[in-house]
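User: Fold this, then the next.

Assistant: Folding the first:
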Amino acid sequence: MSTSIHDIKQDFSEHTRLDRETYGLFMTPVSKFNIEEFVDPVLKWMKNQDFVEINERAVLCHNVQQVGKTNQILKDMPDLEQQLMECVHFHNNEGLNYASEFRINDVYVEVAHQGAIYAPHEHANCVFSGTFFINYDQEAHSFLKFKRQVQSQMFPVMMLPFKQMTAFNLQEATVPFKKGDVVIYPSNLTHGYESNQTDNRITLTFNVTPA
């Protein structure tokens, strides 16, 4: 006599339990440090510098000036360079953890005036980038904004309304920062800021390469 599968008593209770987990893959490290003790020395250093319009990057930014050929800030302030490098090493050790030594090879001291913008962009031929907020008012100045990086032109597959924002559906984001903070991020992470409300948003941006 044959037995049908319907005749067999089955208990799936142990087999139908689901382990429910959602994974955040490919996280992007962004680090923040406070070095407010360097704000006043940098502002003092800036008084003797020449400021020029950023003509070569006019397609990216508007109403922004930077220190020109007199920009030797890391040579003039070696303690600042040492502090920034300490931030770089911490960021590397806590994030990508490359087995390399690093150096700072580009430094830009910039003043954003009222209405200034910096279009979303990335930095090439470097590993990390950092921004030191020398004069920054959270209520009056534009914040540094990061945009989600995707290779596919089909992201998101569909743009549906969100019930709430999560780490997975964000299209752009930032981290909390204030005057005196340094924010370090991968150089290929798209970043920029929108129309600046008031004058005198002062930052020092630097790029980091393997030594």
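Now the next one, as you asked:
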Amino acid sequence: MTESKNTKLQHALKVRARAKRKKPAFVRPESWRYDKFAVSWRRPRGLDNKIRRKIKGWPPGPSAGYEGPKSVRGLHPSGYEEVLVHNVDEVVKVNPATQAARIGHTVGKQKRALIIAEARKLNIVVLNAKEVKEAAKEEEAEDADAKGAKGKEAVKKEKAPEKKAKKKVKPKKAEKKKPKEGKKQ
């Protein structure tokens, strides 16, 4: 039974994607004519407005015909329902069969790593975990650099007295004095 439900969901997601490809970009009426009008959609309310009246030759307006299937409305393209998560306690409440976690943008790097670790234990999909993977790679690179730097610092300390003895102090060049400009008469 779950397989047929799953295939129905996948089919509905494909139908929604097909409908989205056909949907035009709805623009505000007369936005192409006047610079003071932004392109973002505003509902036309005028008595003679051509887009409201759906006159041929004018851009289309939004209507119910562009909607996708009701069963997948509001779902992520992967088919999961998105749940916003800010801490580990909220991750535990996510249902891994139907829901996927999205980590809030205000969550820091340390807590984000904890949330992802807990989600992996519970087999929960995290929609924006890619950022943390990059951050983890950066941390590993920094750790490797720090280890390499510690080794280099030890070598520098051993060689430091030798360099100081070799270094010569250069005498400063005499600066030329510029003549002061007098008052012009």
